[in-house]
């Protein structure tokens, strides 16, 4: 096994596992104060909430798929999945052993990602070609990804027949009924067919026959389909580590008000993997990262600077993009749909802002 030892900064070795929204920001913000190692199975960070725009406009991905080394100038990147954690080290699949003084777990959800940035950009080009060459598209899953993809296709390719099938009683079950109804009305105004309370047998369509069957006995013709359903948390691997008792019944990492893993003083968890009862969203994951970065800096200075920062969930807000100009937004006291909330998110999908937070030019690749 190859040991990766940090340089001169005694007691300041920080290992971040997971290079998504939360992990990338934590690593970036700590790189000049600590010896940072970022462990991620892929070579890049992706602004995930912008991925659906990239499927109808592949060039958009040039700004949303970012090599870790572009923003992590001082840190080390280990491109391999973490497979074990001991009291002092993290082991990765490629045989690396990385010692830590502070550990941040930000592994989010399980998904299959291409390893390199170029492979990911090619993937978006292929998805675009698939949509472009199809007369009809089936989308399975009515959460934010399914709704946003249906909207992107309906706006950019209005001539295509889009069908959205969701197994639940309404779309966007993570937000309130009002927001879900407004999104549904908007989709129907764009001629998207929405089918609720049904699932789709994707194996029912063979290569030659593009007709899919639903659990309700309906048949749907579609030239291509996209599966937009929730992915499981990437925490099962922790059952074989020193953190096996730190997961709750749903596989989430239990944290305290400082976002430390419960019962641990130097181990933190951030992003979707935590057991905090709140919406799991990108801007919230970034807030987690900021809190943990402050706390690790306080701990590295032996608490001389100031007290640790606590994290408290804020009021629940959500904005679901509906194509290039519109969106549906749920704020604490009002829910709105149309171009006004669209001004907040839909044009650039917070890409410039997210790039800027990582020290990158908001507009350029």
Summarize the structure.
With 365 residues, the chain is of the alpha/beta class. The protein contains ten helices and 21 strands.
What is the C-level CATH assignment of the domain at 13-41 and 80-111 and 231-314?
A: Alpha Beta
| Portion in strands | 15-25%
Portion of residues in helices?
Answer: 25-40%
Question: N-to-C terminal Cα separation, in Å?
Answer: 36 Å
Structural category: alpha/beta
CATH-derived topology of the domain at 13-41 and 80-111 and 231-314: FAD/NAD(P)-binding domain
How many strands, what sense, and barrel or not for the largest sheet? 5 strands, parallel
Protein architecture, described:
By secondary structure, the chain is α/β, with parallel strands linked by helices. It has a domain at 13-41 and 80-111 and 231-314: FAD/NAD(P)-binding domain (3-Layer(bba) Sandwich). The chain contains ten helices and 21 strands. It has helices at residues 21-30, 51-56, 61-64, 68-71, 117-132, 144-156, 177-189, 282-300, 339-345, 351-357; strands at residues 2-4, 13-17, 35-40, 44-46, 65-67, 76-79, 82-85, 89-92, 96-99, 102-105, 136-140, 161-165, 193-195, 200-201, 211-214, 219-221, 224-227, 267-269, 318-322, 326-330, 335-338. Helix 1 packs parallel to helix 8. The model has no long low-confidence stretch (mean pLDDT 94).
Write the topology of this structure:
Elements: E1 2-4, E2 13-17, H1 21-30, E3 35-40, E4 44-46, H2 51-56, H3 61-64, E5 65-67, H4 68-71, E6 76-79, E7 82-85, E8 89-92, E9 96-99, E10 102-105, H5 117-132, E11 136-140, H6 144-156, E12 161-165, H7 177-189, E13 193-195, E14 200-201, E15 211-214, E16 219-221, E17 224-227, E18 267-269, H8 282-300, E19 318-322, E20 326-330, E21 335-338, H9 339-345, H10 351-357
Helix pairs in contact: 1-8
């Amino acid at each position: 096994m190859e040991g990766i030892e940090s340089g001169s900064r005694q007691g300041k070795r920080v290992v971040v596992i997971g290079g998504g929204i939360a992990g990338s920001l934590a690593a970036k913000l700590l790189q000049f104060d600590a010896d940072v190692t970022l462990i991620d199975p892929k070579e890049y960070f992706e602004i995930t909430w912008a991925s659906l725009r990239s499927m109808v406009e592949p060039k958009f991905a040039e700004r949303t798929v970012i090599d870790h080394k572009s923003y992590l100038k001082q840190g080390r990147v280990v491109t391999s999945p973490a497979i074990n954690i001991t009291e002092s080290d993290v082991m990765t699949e490629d045989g690396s052993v990385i010692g830590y003084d502070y550990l941040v777990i930000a592994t989010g959800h399980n998904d299959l990602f291409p390893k390199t940035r170029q492979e990911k950009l090619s993937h978006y080009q292929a998805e675009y070609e698939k949509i472009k060459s199809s007369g009809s598209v089936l989308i399975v899953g009515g959460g934010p990804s399914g709704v946003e993809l249906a909207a992107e296709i309906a706006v950019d390719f209005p001539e295509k027949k889009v069908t959205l099938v969701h197994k639940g009683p309404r779309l966007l079950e993570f937000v309130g009924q009002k927001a879900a109804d407004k999104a549904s009305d908007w989709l129907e105004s764009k001629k998207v067919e929405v089918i609720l309370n049904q699932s789709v047998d994707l194996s029912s369509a063979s290569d030659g026959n593009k007709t899919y069957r639903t659990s309700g006995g309906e048949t749907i013709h579609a030239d291509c389909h996209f599966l937009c359903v929730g992915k499981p948390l990437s925490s099962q691997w922790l059952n074989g580590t020193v953190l096996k008792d730190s997961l709750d019944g749903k596989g989430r990492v239990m944290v305290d008000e400082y976002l430390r893993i419960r019962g641990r003083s130097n181990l933190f968890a951030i992003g979707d993997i935590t057991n905090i009862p709140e919406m799991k969203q990108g801007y919230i994951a970034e807030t987690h990262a900021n809190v943990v970065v402050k706390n690790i800096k306080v701990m590295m200075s032996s608490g001389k600077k100031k007290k640790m920062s606590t994290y408290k969930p804020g009021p629940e807000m959500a904005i679901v993009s509906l194509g290039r100009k519109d969106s549906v937004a749920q704020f604490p006291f009002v829910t709105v749909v149309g171009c006004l909330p669209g001004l907040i998110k839909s044009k650039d999908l917070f890409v410039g802002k997210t790039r800027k937070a990582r020290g990158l030019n908001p507009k350029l690749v």
